[in-house]
Amino acid sequence: MMLEIMRSIYANYLKFIEDQVYWYVFLFALIIIIGFGVAKEKKRFLMIAMGIFSVVYICPISARLLMYGMGSDVYWRMFWLVPIPIVISVALVLLDDRMPVNKVLRFFCMIAVLLLIGKIGKVMYQGDIFAKHDNMYNLPSEAIAVCDAVNEDADANGVTNKRLAASGDLVCYVRQYDASIRMPYGRDGLRGTYETELARQIYQLMETSGTDFTMLTTLLQQDGCNYLAYYSSEDVRQMLTSLGYRIVASTESHDVYAVPQESNYDGWILMCYPDASGNQGEFFTLKNKKTGTFIVVDGGWAENTERVRQVIADNGNVVDAWFITHYHNDHVDAFNNIYHDPQGITIKKIYDSPLDAQVFEQVAQEWDTPDSFKTYVQQTKNDERVEHLKRNQSFEIDGLRFDIFNAYDQVVYDTCQGDIPNDCSLVFKVSGTKDSILFCGDCHTAEMADMLISRYGENLQAEYVQPGHHGNNSFPTSFYDLVNPSAVIFNAPEWLMTGENYTAKDLKEYFEQKNVKVYDYSSPCLMFRFE
Q1: Which of 397, 311, 286, 406 is nearest to 349 (CA)?
Q2: 423, 416 in Cβ contact below 8 A?
Q3: Is the pTM of this model over 0.70?
Q4: Which one of 185, 227, 441, 457 is at 20 to 30 Å from 158 when CA atoms are compared?
């Protein structure tokens, strides 16, 4: 946690000093004031003020509190407390006061200072800051035209709850003009923070080239959006009208559409959620839209707890089945927190891998997060809702079939060559009438792959696969050749998918060469129909 805060502090510092020359001029001016003959009281005041600011800004505890209050993405505004223009001005006056009386020299020095200011500064009176208004609201006419179109259509069709998904250039202005038009995201979308996972996926799809409009339609319907404002394009217009959208109006650069009513699809929806920590994690859900049955796989880091709570709340606050693949903190800590403090969440059934505590103690390394395992065991001990799954076990939950291909047992102990805490992961296949997904948890070694292939063969085949160990140092490609998926869902962030020190990029390239669709935490949409 502290390390993440320090990284955020440094990132905000870099955001503030985009033009580093300006910052260095300030530091140089500070040295001049301290070195020249300024009254000790004034020097002391300046040094104390800068010292207090530095301590408060850098201290992780105070920084965390301030970020919580103002938002971590705008923490750089703390630098507004630093009297940069005043310090530079005072330093320039001191320099001028100590220059020779020669007027010509002073003149050229003043010209040099003005040129420096012009070089490191930014002209305020330019288009991205000021613009000539053309209406009484001082808002972009495009945003007003879109809002008026939505209101006119809503009045004509008896729509009382107007909910609009708009492109990024409009989101800051819609609610300023008409607060009765609700949106899944607003300015927060531009800052990369969202109230819900649906909002994140809608915004990213809206702002991604080559938008999957079929998936966007599903997301808009799930979120309850009845209007869409999208950049004008004949190709987009044809695509959306073919999907049942109705054109409400066309403005100068946008088309406004009425979103079609939700489709008759009432089956299962599979979703993968990025971890709020910014790291790899595992948090999947399966939801039956008809019956409401809700299934969770893992949950991720402790930092992901509130996201998990919100997703569960959005789906009725009841988890019918919660699968825990294994006991590393990036998989189980959010569950541990919610189990300890449910806050109204009901968990009906818990499935896990029966890892032997004595074996874990013998083999666990520091990175195996023994506290996470101990917490899980202590909390769930004697809980009748917990079922320790066994290899070859099969059962159904609301029409979905679950086949267990791996859970901790003597086979894992005999097969594994040194990574039991990962290789004890549940490996299981969930099958509907048409689709299936193979969850691999963090099981990943070549020995385990050979064992699974020899025991289960073509039964491992699935439409989707969550690759073992987040796709990094994962199973050999021979395992995935057998699984033969149409799509792979890496439960991993972009830095792990592209980093030179990680092998996930190689596995991604392997799948892409086989024309398998690849998804990861940076993908615009991680929601899938699961039939």
Answers
A1: 397
A2: yes
A3: no
A4: 185
